């Protein structure tokens, strides 16, 4: 009976130590050096590869995305003025918003709609 208690007690201590270590490790991984304004956890690309989205997480923890167009080979440039779209609570929320936009799936063209106004 005492041996069972020691095994359970030591497992509990090891479990708590692991939780503490993981929480400290995660906290350090999300801290930004002073010179970095944002990190890019991932990029998304359309099926045909002509459009891309760069998901960014800023220092304040908010997530944004920037739409990009392929110019040549694997080179992409920011669409329009390269404005960040957001904020979103998580990178996954930014991803969901980006892929839901008609532009990303190729349903929206880049042409100026004001030129086609009725007389």
Total count of domains: 2
Tell me, rounded to a whole number, the average pLDDT.
77
> Quick one: how many beta strands?
5
**Spans of at least 5 consecutive residues with low confidence:** 2-10, 25-29, 111-119
Strand content: 25-35%
User: What is the C-alpha radius of gyration, as a whole number of Å?
Assistant: 23 Å
The structure class reads: alpha+beta
Largest sheet data: 5 strands, antiparallel
Shape: globular
Summarize the structure.
This protein has 119 residues and is α+β, with helices and mostly antiparallel strands.
Q: How would you describe the overall organization of this protein?
A:
The chain is an alpha+beta fold and 119 residues long. The chain folds into 2 domains: 31 residues; 75 residues, no CATH class. Helix content is 35%, strand content 29%. It is built from 3 helices and 5 strands; from the N terminus they run αβββββαα. Strands 1, 2, 3, 4 and 5 form a 5-stranded antiparallel β-sheet that branches. The chain starts with a helix and ends in a 14-residue tail after the last helix.
């Amino acid at each position: 009976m005492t041996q069972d208690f020691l095994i359970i007690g030591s497992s509990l201590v090891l479990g708590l130590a692991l939780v503490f270590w993981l929480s400290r490790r995660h906290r350090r991984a999300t801290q930004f050096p002073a010179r970095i304004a944002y990190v890019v956890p991932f990029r998304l690309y359309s099926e045909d590869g002509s459009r891309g989205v760069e998901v960014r997480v800023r220092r304040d923890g908010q997530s944004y995305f920037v739409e990009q167009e392929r110019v040549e080979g694997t080179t992409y440039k920011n669409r329009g003025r390269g404005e960040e779209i957001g904020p979103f609570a998580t990178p996954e929320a930014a991803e969901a918003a980006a892929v839901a936009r008609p532009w990303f799936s190729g349903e929206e063209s880049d042409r100026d709609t004001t030129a086609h106004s009725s007389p």
